[in-house]
User: What shape does this take?
Amino acid sequence: MNIAVAQSGGPTCAINASLLGVFRTGIQYTEIDTVYGSLNGIEGLIYNNLVDLNTVITSDEELELIRQTPSTVLGSCRYKLPQPEDDKAVYETITKNLKDHNIKAFFYIGGNDSMDTVVKLSRYFKNEGEDIKVIGIPKTIDNDLPHTDHTPGFGSAAKYVATTLQEITRDSSVYSAKSVTIVEIMGRDTGWLTASSVLLRANSNSAPHLIYLPEKPFSVSKFLDDVVKMQEKYPSVIVAVSEGVSLSSDEAGEDFTSGKEDIFGHKYLAGVGKALEKIVSREIGCKVRSIELNVMQRCSSHLSSGNDIAEAENIGAAAVKEMMSGKTGVMMTFERLGNKPYNLRIGCVEAEKVANHVKYFPDEWIAENNCDVTHRALEYFLPLIHGEPSIRIKNGLPAHFVLSKEN
Amino acid sequence: MNIAVAQSGGPTCAINASLLGVFRTGIQYTEIDTVYGSLNGIEGLIYNNLVDLNTVITSDEELELIRQTPSTVLGSCRYKLPQPEDDKAVYETITKNLKDHNIKAFFYIGGNDSMDTVVKLSRYFKNEGEDIKVIGIPKTIDNDLPHTDHTPGFGSAAKYVATTLQEITRDSSVYSAKSVTIVEIMGRDTGWLTASSVLLRANSNSAPHLIYLPEKPFSVSKFLDDVVKMQEKYPSVIVAVSEGVSLSSDEAGEDFTSGKEDIFGHKYLAGVGKALEKIVSREIGCKVRSIELNVMQRCSSHLSSGNDIAEAENIGAAAVKEMMSGKTGVMMTFERLGNKPYNLRIGCVEAEKVANHVKYFPDEWIAENNCDVTHRALEYFLPLIHGEPSIRIKNGLPAHFVLSKEN
Assistant: This one.
């Protein structure tokens, strides 16, 4: 028999490590002949774009390069499967392509939308009596999947955010004049990544002085009060704000047009950070700068977390073992057994308990003033950014693996 | 006798290494008793804010931390000295404070404005018959100082830009749909840092597909033509554009309000990248994203260039030796003796030949189509980003040295 693996949704630094976990474990089973990669997520199963990963990964060196390459070596997609009753043809196409390649299991590495695909596909195969297993492998920098302690990809994103915010803090503190620096961090619905900025406190930084998450209502007037109060203690106030904070338009007026994306997937001109910069400049009048960490949060693999990359590979490997033990329609999960020492157990959960559900940042980890997070949150984040993988350098730059030679 | 050192202008990753060069070499001379640090640049000499660096740097560990800390541990300023004939009082204050501390030499680490200070101060001391020497140590991520092969701080900024642009390229290439990614890079007057994006080609990237520098006129219609042409070859077009490109307002209309800063030092709402994003969205209609690398270009010391940091320390050390040999009113320089092997000679030049002069990116290194740079430029950049300093990590983050405990 053969198996197939695909990557989906927004890129991360760890999604290629999970691919390696599936590949390396898959080829160890004598029952498994070929591990196929499906190009551009589930689209590869629909359009029959499958590559034998043995022909792609031909040496240990390539394997190492894939591990340190950000984004998805097999490409990605945002395709959402219809319900079988609405469009059975696409399911039949997928089934045919899988059967033509004797593929008995499909591993889908992705976030919430991908788990929806895992649920639909596995249910369809069961109903049709097809012996094809479907396993979800979590991945998202948003860390918003339920039933898992955290998601692969999040630790590296948090390490990038904290490292960069610490450097921005140094940069912002050189002049004697008062200033405000507003850093906009990804997370449209949940504040996990923005909250991880609290990691700076582990190294005696007072920054970030204010942290705003989408889980709490945001008020412009309270924000201005918070900033002015902080300026009494700190000449350079550092603000970490989630792109997803929502505020009433009557309060913000034209300054604010939300961090939401338009149909082309790009943001409206004024994101949260830029809007708050304008407001601080007008209402407080001090030096102010806004910084959007943008896609660097999800692709800066030169700064990835050693724990994150190792866990991503391990959870990919465990997915193959679960499949071999008969599981289908599940998503792999992490359970944290302890912090000292940090210890994880890998398990799995019904994918339908994850798909289309969101895990919000816990209310009890948000400080009472709604503009900070607690020490308990810091303890949760710390092990996730631990460890620095050694990176192969070529000509002063990290060496990358590129499947297509187009870019 | 004693000496003093100060840091000025915009932060870089290498300016603290130059400070160490002055400090470590200064304390080796038996003639020199104390190396003072002047807080917030020249302002420290005016307001008598001087610290004995021996009381600040008390161990080898602190020394190492300073070397890997971005920005300026002694603070910075944007203060421009008046002409002595316009305001002699400030010169008299500086002279008094220096003499009160028996300071016979002042080292100013900075860019163009700082060299102006070196010229004025050294001239004043000569005219007044004061035996106080003034030496400039170059520093700027802009690389725009004449009479030196390059400036400390530039190599680390170029390494950040190239590393990040390579990761953005991977991130932008995951979907099958056509897209344009516009990366706005610092450099208001010169294109050195934007041009350094060509470093990606050393590692077989086709990106960046288009490079626009402020040294050449920018035309929106030609830009759109360039993008459309590139889209025929590359589904994901990566554009590196300098914040300083200038275009006629009649062509761009309201989309474009220049990358210039206002009196608070922050940018107008729409920078070049955001303006071009809007134009591509409207005129071409494909997926488009703009990314501003912002201050991360100058403060990402977790990614600094080994050569840059070593050279910055060496040029600081050499400055002390030049002073001891009797020099004043000069700026330290690098002369490149060869690329294979890469070999530098440190020298110096009259500071007045640097102050208020700008070194533009060479015309012969810009490709004929005005949207690319040549292989010769790549060869110039390559050694500047070579080497990865080992970074001390604490709690998963680079350890930093902070003089004031305020931030």
In short: The domain at 2-141+148-153+300-356+387-398 of chain A is CATH 3.40.50.450 (Rossmann fold). The longest helix of chain A spans residues 154-172.
